[in-house]
Write a structure and sequence with these properties.
By secondary structure, the protein is α+β, with helices and mostly antiparallel strands. It has helices at about 1-20, 20-25, 200-215, and strands at about 50-55, 65-70, 75-80, 110-120, 125-130, 140-150, 150-160, 165-180. The protein has an 8-stranded antiparallel β-barrel with strand order 1-2-3-4-5-6-7-8. A hairpin with a 4-residue loop joins strand 2 and strand 3 (about 75-80). The longest helix has 18 residues, at about 1-20.
């Protein structure tokens, strides 16, 4: 009897503590997107530098990026280094691709899928996605930055979905730009495979064709080292 009671208690505890999370997040589709990829989409128009990566030395927190790349086509690539980030942040690289982990093999349980960004005036907004267990709906994050100058951004707001509501948090985190070469390809951002990230089915199909060609021609990538999520962000 005692075993049955303990089993029942654990079942209720796990279901209420963890199980509800699988239905708390919206399953994202095109109508939730403010921005969409398009072969002619070029949001920056020279407002900031892009031939390198952005980083912050602020105290690490799981839900905002420690480092990232912004590509000219609107792609947002969240960076995870092969070693502790403090060994890399602020350094200029001759081949950045050799020092990072790639989203498709970053973890067996957490998929860091990247996102898209847009610019309005001196504000840069990122719509980014993760998937906690790979078979669950996408989790959505929105980071809003002030463009201070071509080499400095200030993250002042973070938004995310929780229990079907949008939660907004005020922040004040500076990011700095470091010129680097050998950047990973924007084709490595997995969220771009989703049809709803594109302005039309035709644009999405064209991208899929280009992606297949890239994957055939892709050079060998550095070995993937699986790390703990909180520690190496």
């Amino acid at each position: 009897m005692n075993r049955l009671l303990i089993f029942a208690f654990l079942t209720v505890f796990i279901t209420t503590t963890f199980g509800c999370r699988s239905v708390d997040y919206k399953k994202y589709s095109k109508e939730y997107q403010q921005y969409h990829f398009d072969k002619n989409y070029r949001p920056l128009t020279g407002k900031i530098d892009i031939d390198g990566y952005w980083y912050t030395t602020d105290t690490i927190i799981r839900y905002y990026p420690k480092a990232f790349i912004l590509y000219s086509d609107g792609t947002f690539f969240r960076l995870f280094f092969l070693e502790k980030p403090e060994q890399y942040l602020g350094r200029s690289f001759d081949n950045l691709s050799d020092s990072i982990q790639y989203p498709d093999a970053y973890s067996q349980k957490v998929l860091i899928a990247g996102g898209i960004y847009g610019v309005s005036g001196d504000t840069l907004s990122v719509e980014a996605y993760t998937n906690e267990l790979l078979d669950k709906p996408w989790m959505y994050y929105r980071w809003v930055f002030e463009i201070i100058d071509k080499n400095t951004l200030r993250l002042f707001e973070q938004q995310y979905e929780w229990e079907l509501k949008t939660v907004a948090k005020r922040m004040n985190i500076l990011y700095h730009f470091v010129p680097s070469e050998g950047l990973p390809s924007p084709f490595e951002v997995m969220i771009k495979k989703e049809k709803w990230m594109w302005s039309s089915e035709e644009e999405w199909m064209d991208y899929r064709d280009s992606l297949k060609l890239y994957e055939k021609q892709r050079l060998h990538r550095p070995g993937i080292v699986i790390r703990g999520v909180e520690y190496y962000q």
